[in-house]
Amino acid sequence: MKVENQKSYIKWRYFKQTIFFGVVRLSALIITAALIGILTYIFFHGFRAISWDFLTLPPTDSMTAGGIMPAIVGTLYLTIGAISVALPLGVVSAIYLTEYAKQGRWIRIIRIGVNCLAGVPSVVFGLFGLGFFVVFLKFGSSILAGSLTLGILILPTVIGASEEALKSVPQTFREASLALGVSKWSTIARIVLPSALPGILTGSILGVGRAAGETAPIMFTAAAFFTASLPKSIFDEVMALPYHIYVLATAGTHIEQTRSLQYGTVLVLVGLVLGIDLIAILIRSSMRRKKRW
Amino acid sequence: MTRHFREIIIRNLFACFAFFSVLILGLIVIFLFREGIPIFQQISVFKFIFGSAWYPTYDPPEYGIWPLIVGSLVVTFFACLIAVPLGVLSAIYISEIAPGAIKEYLKSIIELLAGLPSVVLGFFGMVIVAPWLQETFDLPTGLNIINASVMLAIMAIPTISSISEDAIYAVPREFKEASYALGATKYETIIKVIIPAALSGISTAVILGMARAIGETMVVLMVAGGAAAIPQSIFDSVRPMPASIAAEMGEAPFGSGHYHALFATGIVLFFVTLAFNLIADYFSNKFKEVGSGTL
């Protein structure tokens, strides 16, 4: 009798486990389905709109026809600008945090600063960019103001990724170099940085992807509803893919009529951003396989 | 001696650069206040935050952001109701249950989900989810709390999942081994050993996920409907703080009361998310699992 009881108790325990595993698998499945569902839907509605003309012509007929070339170019400019702000600052910050800083109050402050910066809502970055770059520094709504705003937005991403990459370089590399009498800076520049470079790049690429897809920070700092020509200087406004989607989907007088343009633009943006992310993910996984230490 | 000197210069130079993030944070505060404070010459802080009417373009204008705050809290709450279980459970699946190949594959999926631009999710919610909701539930509009919450949940899941996963991964092996050695099933080990040990990390993940949801702009701008009123049901439209800022900043005349009120809304939003982040930081430091000796 006792043995019977025990058996059923064990059965019950495994039954609970089966149920739990089912629920857990289901949640993973829901997330996968959400991503695949969204991507498939966008792909099948978007690819019909995509043509050579769509990618290379400016919008025509008050944005109810034509292409999205100025928006692609604008997003490219803004993204390049953002990463040229964030990469040097981020890498140097990460070097300081991992290689030089000793534990202490200042480091704690810097870390909290980086963490909090990472948590600032993107629309607040937009407000800051408007108040500081556009109004106070008088850059106007421009590529420069937008790039700087996006640059500080992705700074925490770049710092985080670079720190992780630097930390993963084995301590013995540094010790061997220092034991040979090499100075700390040369050790960092010649030994640590080259070993950490792929990791830093991966993180930066992810930052680029983030910058390319953000809308709220550029709404008041760089993005134009429509520009007749391509920007000529960094003080010009630009069109940008995410803002273009927002404008076509909400502000136009022909929202239904331009649906296919909207799908096409969404597909281009998603392709661009996820393509960038995918490259980073692939680099990282091939790096892990090839790792020599 | 010169080499020593150079080292000192580099060290201090790098320290300055590292301080840049803190500097930016300070500048953000300064410039939000610079542009936001003037509104409080027209209206008291209390009336601004708890005033129940947001009619910034009326004459005389009314700048009460309470409906916007409620809007933000409501969509964040419902988004978390969806995102927390999905995020934490998927983290458990990835770190404890999934076989190697599926694990890597799922991690990439979650990373790609994190990379999906918010304007795309907003678009998806507007074009697909809204008409479906409207027809199925026979509503006046599909742009409402429930739609915004689902879309926000999709944005918050990657944050919650990846940080929880790190926390679960950091639980020392000995804990699991001890549990198995006592005859516990895998389920019992996960529920009674791993989750309690990772709880501080999971809490951090949830708080950061909430911060992400409350600050997210494009989704709530496009799918929350935009009604600046206290909602009565989950099928009502709301106008969360970020949506209000993004939608109105373009039309608010520079230097007007409306302009300053939007910056002041930004101040509120900034401090709410800052509080979330500091709490998360406190959790992750206070209850840090340093090794197997901590429990």
| Strand arrangement, major sheet of chain B | 1-2
The greatest interface between two protein chains, and residues involved on each side, is:
A-B, 87 and 88 residues
Helix content of chain A: over 70%
Strand content of chain A: under 5%
**SS summary, helix count of chain A:** 11
**Strand-and-helix sequence of chain A, N→C?**
HHEEHHHHHHHHH
General description of the model:
The complex is a heterodimer of chains A (293) and B (295). Chain A has 293 residues and is mostly helical. Chain A has helices at 2-46, 52-56, 69-100, 105-119, 122-136, 143-167, 171-179, 184-213, 216-219, 241-251, 259-290; strands at 59-60, 65-66. Chain A is built from eleven helices and two strands. Chain A has a two-stranded antiparallel sheet. Chain A is globular and about 80 Å long. With 295 residues, chain B is mainly alpha-helical. Chain B contains twelve helices and two strands. In chain B, helix 5 packs across helix 7 and helix 6 packs across helix 7. Chain B is globular. The chains are: A mainly alpha (293), B mainly alpha (295). Chains A and B meet through helix 1, helix 3, helix 4, helix 5 and helix 6 of A and helix 1, helix 2, helix 4, helix 5 and helix 6 of B.
Describe this protein with a few key phrases.
heterodimer, A: 293 residues, mainly alpha, MetI-like fold, two-stranded antiparallel sheet, 11 helices, 2 strands, 1% strand, globular, B: 295 residues, 73% helix
